[in-house]
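Let's practice the habit of predicting before peeking. Look at the sequence and jot down your guess about where helices and strands might fall. Then scroll down.
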Amino acid sequence: MDVSGSDGPWLVVGLGNPGPGYAGNRHNIGFMVVELLAERTGARLRSHRARADVDQVRLAGQPAVLARPRTFMNVSGPPAAGLRAFYKTDVARVIVVHDELDIPFGAIRLKRGGGDNGHNGLRSITSALGSRDYLRVRVGIGRPPGRMDPADFVLRDFSTVERKELPLLVDSAADAVESLVHEELSVAQNRFHAG
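Done guessing? Here is the structure:
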């Protein structure tokens, strides 16, 4: 499929840690969203030399690349930057999907730019891209209970109660990605921030 364009295709990068031991972790919600988008579009994520599993698809009628880095979360940046260079994608068309502690479980927030808020995956991506001006689909996982270390919390699987709601959350986050591709950020924000 030809994904050429003046600004390149959209690049959707889902954040997580590779390997079956991490698959159900809260930190892997970005992987889950990219995997659902691949399922929706009939994509088959394949190994790319940029150290990511990727496929070229159409999202909301637009050329796009779905990507799941094969590196650990805290070094997600080099694969994202490598893919951006390979596909000649403008940083404004990069969408990063990630877990967010400061948003309640089940909520989704969309924004462009901003800090990393202690998120090592975002820190790595901002550093490697040399810019903060990419889009973010922030998927709420809530705060850890009691005095649990946030680093431990994000590396735990979703609770039994959360797992019942998880398919709906992943589905909504995938819809949010498609909405960002299809329409202005402000329109997508109005749609997904209302809930």
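How did you do? Strands lie at 10-14, 46-48, 52-59, 62-69, 94-100, 108-112, 135-140.
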